[in-house]
TrEMBL record:
Biological classification of the source: Eukaryota, Metazoa, Ecdysozoa, Arthropoda, Hexapoda
InterPro entries: Kelch-typ_b-propeller, Kelch_domain_protein
Gene symbol of the encoding locus: LOC112685226
Extent of Acidic residues compositional bias: 454-467
Positions with biased composition (Low complexity): 434-453
Record protein name field: Kelch domain-containing protein 4
Species in which this protein is naturally found: Sipha flava
Residue ranges, annotated region (Disordered): 1-23, 434-467
Length: 467
């Protein structure tokens, strides 16, 4: 019986390999027909172009261009927020970015910093800012797609940007995670801790639940050995480090093949705690445990944005989308703009729905009330959410109007102590100007790019729920 099973498995493996080879040949033929270079060649060209630059330039801009799936993190020392990368779908293709943009909170100004040797364009990567060596920005992974959307390229590279000297450095360290996007990375006790994500190549995909630590002391990767009940493979989860070394992972998304031409997506709403074993100081051994949640839990959703509140074991989460599959080809999406606070100080992590109400004079008209309501960020996914000086900042993201997927460039702030109202830093009238039955997003085709490094067109919006 054992031999027969082995022979059966061998036949399946050979059939799978043969099928994938045929698919790859078909894709290569299609790429050749449209005259597109291989995606690895495109990425290498972008990286070489960046290396050829010899000086740092800083340019004031009105605001970043429309985008989603970018990173948006607070500067560790200065009164600034740092934006890197992302993507923008203009109705015909997707533009990928590798621009580095700083928002100065006090002066309400945006500055594009173009430094030599920058990482190639990407989206759905992870970024962490730290105070070491006068400030550093660390970036790992992400994805790139070719202009035809036939080809996808996932990165497994690690980069650091010196916030003072403005130098990009590619870190060549062995033993790290494989290429992926939609993963999460946090800073915890002089280590970058990375979890999850996914990888696809147009005709196949894989989700991960592996766990890695990168030491900021000796610049080495290690696989974290774990015991207990680990989270299932997923991408797009929320991950927050606590002051005592523990880490919380919430939610996420994965999809699986149900039959030949049908993949089913699943939204996860579970929560797990990663706890270093007693005496462990370098994340050599940790324990996973599934934890209960209390309070006003968010409804099922994915692709929401999250940011930690340093020193308080709290985090804020905003927006997200719930996709309901009515059939193989029928999908209904519900987008959200509610704001939650997750309190991790409690024995049981506790959710709280944050209510933002403007206190208006009773004599004010209904029209005034209506205008106030419109000041709240609209429902969206994949926006940037950052916390600095007791203030939340939200930028951009994606929302659907009818059959159209719209990318935003509005910008809001909220004083979390007062919770009086959302402050509109930059408005966006796109939702008012685009009708739900538009055949394309032609109204966005003239959108200016904030950097000449948007060398490519890229990926399909079908990936929206996975990052």
């Amino acid at each position: 019986m054992g031999k027969n099973k082995k022979k059966g498995a061998s036949r399946i493996e050979k059939a799978t390999a043969k099928r994938e080879k045929k698919i790859a040949q078909r894709i290569k033929k299609d790429i050749g027909r449209i005259g597109e270079p291989e995606v690895s060649t495109i990425v290498a060209h972008i990286e070489a172009k960046s290396k050829a630059k010899v000086k740092v330039t800083e340019t004031k801009i009105d605001n970043p261009s429309r985008r989603s799936n970018f990173t948006f993190v607070p500067h560790p020392d200065k009164d600034e927020i740092i934006l890197f990368g992302g993507e923008f779908h203009n109705g015909k293709n997707t533009i990928m970015y590798n621009d580095l943009i700083f928002y100065n909170i006090s002066h309400n100004t945006w500055t594009l910093v173009d430094a030599p040797g920058a990482p190639p364009s990407r989206s759905s990567h992870s970024a962490v800012s730290i105070a070491t060596d006068n400030g550093q920005l660390w970036i790992f992974g992400g994805e790139f797609a070719s202009p035809s959307e036939y080809q996808f390229y996932h990165y497994n590279d690690l980069w650091v940007f010196g916030l003072k000297n403005k130098i990009w450095t590619k870190i060549m360290a062995q033993g790290g995670p494989c290429a992926r996007s939609g993963h999460r990375m946090v800073l915890n006790k002089r280590h970058l801790i990375l979890f999850g994500g996914f990888q696809d190549n147009t005709h196949n995909y894989q989700y991960f639940n592996d766990l890695y630590a990168f030491s900021l002391t000796d610049y080495k990767w290690k696989t974290i050995k774990t015991t207990g009940q680990a989270p299932s493979p997923r991408s797009g989860c929320q991950m927050f480090a606590m002051e005592d070394g523990r880490i919380i992972v919430y939610g996420g998304y994965y999809k699986e093949k149900i039959k030949k031409d049908y993949d089913k997506g699943t939204i996860l709403i579970d929560m797990f705690m990663l706890t270093p074993e007693k005496g462990d100081t370098d994340f050599s051994n940790c324990r996973w445990s599934k934890v209960k949640q209390a309070g006003f839990l968010p409804t099922a959703r994915c692709s929401l944005s999250g940011t930690p509140i340093p020193g308080h074991n709290r985090a804020y989460l905003f927006g997200g989308v719930y996709d309901e599959e009515q059939g193989e080809d029928d999908l209904t999406s519900t987008f959200y703009n509610d704001l939650f606070m997750l309190d991790m100080e409690q024995n049981i992590p506790t959710w709280r729905l944050i209510s933002v109400k403007e206190q208006i004079n009773k004599l004010e008209s209904e029209v005034a009330q209506s205008s106030i309501d419109l000041e709240s960020p609209s429902p969206r996914t994949h926006s940037g959410l950052a916390f600095k000086h007791n203030t939340l900042f939200i930028y951009g993201g994606i929302v659907e109007k009818g059959s159209k997927s719209l990318t935003l460039n509005d910008f809001y702030s909220l004083d979390i102590k007062k919770l009086k109202k959302w402050n509109v830093i930059c408005n966006d009238n796109l939702l008012k100007s685009v009708t739900s039955d538009s055949s394309s997003d032609d109204s966005m085709l003239t959108d200016e790019t904030s950097s000449e490094t948007s060398d490519s067109d890229a990926s399909s919006d079908e990936q929206m729920d996975t990052d």
